[in-house]
Specification:
Blueprint lengths: L18 E4 L15 H10 L3 E5 L4 H11 L5 E3 L4 E4 L4 E5 L4 H13 L17 E4 L5 H9 L6 E5 L4 E5 L4 H11 L7 E5 L5 H6 L2 E4 L5 H6 L2 E2 L5 H13 L1
Parallel strand pairs: 1-2, 1-9, 2-3, 9-10, 10-11
Antiparallel strand pairs: 3-4, 4-5, 6-8, 7-8
Helix pairs in contact: 1-8
């Protein structure tokens, strides 16, 4: 697959990939859930020898039911690379960061920006390696506050669904650099698919990458191709093309 020109979706041949790594929110599902046909296409793709894995900003308890419902054989990367789990291969849950400092930093930021609710999004009750808040807050202002605080080593990432505060070096790319060798999968034979800025690092690693939303120029320019339909329907487009080849 070469870099896309124009509006046509470019996909690799299914024989050229060993794994697909999907983001979840805005990619596999939106506020309406998953579109009809998603489960069947996932199963068809895996039956042809392509393992499907998940890499998301969601927590592991949020992702495990999705992984099971889709019948996937791949691994799970949760919390934007902070939590790793390969249940199908019997590997234990691995935490790559301590989320306590991330939570403390947000609690302090909330004293400087009263409009921020430090309790953050509901799933924080299960979050172990980062802390998230929602709302249209000024990410640059948060970054500036952190830069001159005792939490200056932390990183702020906006995904479109939430604002994540995490340790530096924790992202989907560095997580894949750990997980792919454990599966003996060459990154050049991996297709990554997502819609947000937190997906750009894994686009930079994998041999093939497709964006399913054109909201962010940086995401579109980092991906080798993009779908003509947005979000989960773009995933349907990708899987249909792959299985037609």
């Amino acid at each position: 697959m070469t870099k896309q020109n124009g509006n046509d979706l470019l996909t690799p041949s299914i024989e050229d990939i060993d794994m697909i790594v999907f983001d979840v929110d805005g990619t596999l599902m939106d506020r309406d859930g998953m579109p009809p046909g998603m489960v069947g296409l996932m199963k068809e793709t895996e039956s042809r020898g392509v393992t499907i894995s998940l890499a998301s900003g969601r927590t592991l308890p949020n992702l495990t039911p999705i992984h099971q419902a889709l019948g996937l054989s791949g691994f799970i990367i949760a919390e934007n690379g902070g939590v790793l789990w390969d249940g199908p291969k019997g590997q234990k849950i691995e935490l790559r960061a301590n989320g306590d400092r991330c939570r403390e930093s947000i609690e302090w930021i909330a004293t400087q920006m009263p409009e921020i609710d430090p309790s953050g999004i509901e799933s924080n009750r299960w979050r172990e390696t980062e802390w998230c808040i929602s709302g249209p807050h000024d990410i640059n202002a948060i970054r500036e506050l952190l830069e001159f605080s005792k939490w200056s080593d932390l990183r702020v990432v906006g995904t479109g669904f939430a604002i994540h505060v995490t340790e530096r070096g924790i992202n989907k790319k560095t997580a894949l650099e750990i997980m792919l060798p454990r599966r003996n999968v060459n990154p050049k034979r991996v297709l990554s698919c997502g819609d947000g800025l937190n997906d750009v690092p894994m686009f930079e690693l994998t041999g093939y990458s497709i964006a399913v939303d054109d909201k962010y120029d940086r995401v579109c320019s980092a991906a080798m191709s993009h779908t003509t339909r947005m979000g989960p329907r773009g995933v349907i487009e990708i899987l249909t093309r792959l299985n037609a080849k």
